[in-house]
């Protein structure tokens, strides 16, 4: 996987348990618009009532499908959380770009963590 050597295979004791790996790179990859893609965001909303709902409505209004939403505490800010979102869309798509602009306007902070193929895509040898 990514040219790495598997050091040890560990079978989980429960079928629903699985391990995820993250591939980090200094330079973003471009995902072809012909390949199903996901974009991962990190955002923090304001502390007012309905702030998260308002952000999620932006996705709905642009017909973007959220496949994951996780909250994590913001270190040093008690009772405040940031949110990780996976969105089923290519970062370069028009709807995603419009949604990012709107989210940037209504959230306290937002960062795109990356865009990547949402499925294992095996290159085809043209020969």
UniProtKB/TrEMBL annotation:
Cross-referenced PANTHER family, in alphabetical order?
Answer: PREPHENATE DEHYDRATASE P PROTEIN, PREPHENATE DEHYDRATASE-RELATED
GO terms for CC? Answer: cytoplasm
| InterPro entries (alphabetical) | ACT-like_dom_sf (IPR045865), ACT_dom (IPR002912), Preph_deHydtase (IPR001086), Preph_deHydtase_CS (IPR018528)
Please name the GO terms of the biological process aspect recorded for this protein, alphabetically.
L-phenylalanine biosynthetic process
The keyword Iron is annotated on this UniProt entry: no
User: Enzyme group, top EC level?
Assistant: lyase
Record field: catalytic activity? prephenate + H(+) = 3-phenylpyruvate + CO2 + H2O
Identify this protein by name.
Answer: prephenate dehydratase
Ranges in coiled-coil conformation: none
Per the UniProt record, the source organism is Escherichia coli
Pathway of action: Amino-acid biosynthesis; L-phenylalanine biosynthesis; phenylpyruvate from prephenate: step 1/1
Query: Keywords on this record?
Result: Amino-acid biosynthesis, Aromatic amino acid biosynthesis, Lyase, Phenylalanine biosynthesis
Q: Which residue ranges does the record assign to the Prephenate dehydratase domain?
A: 1-26
Q: Extract one GO molecular function annotation from the record.
A: prephenate dehydratase activity
Q: What is its EC number?
A: 4.2.1.51
């Amino acid at each position: 996987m990514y040219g790495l050597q598997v050091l040890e295979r560990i079978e989980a004791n429960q079928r629903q348990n699985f391990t995820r790996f993250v591939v980090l790179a200094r330079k973003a990859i471009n995902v072809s618009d012909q390949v199903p893609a996901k974009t991962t965001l990190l955002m923090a909303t304001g502390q007012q009532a309905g702030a998260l709902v308002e952000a999620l409505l932006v996705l709905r209004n642009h017909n973007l499908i959220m496949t994951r939403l996780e909250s994590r505490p913001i270190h040093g800010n008690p009772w405040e959380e940031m949110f990780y979102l996976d969105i089923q869309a290519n970062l370069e798509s028009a709807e995603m770009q419009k949604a990012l602009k709107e989210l940037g306007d209504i959230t306290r902070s937002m960062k795109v963590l990356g865009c990547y193929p949402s499925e294992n895509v095996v290159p085809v040898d043209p020969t």
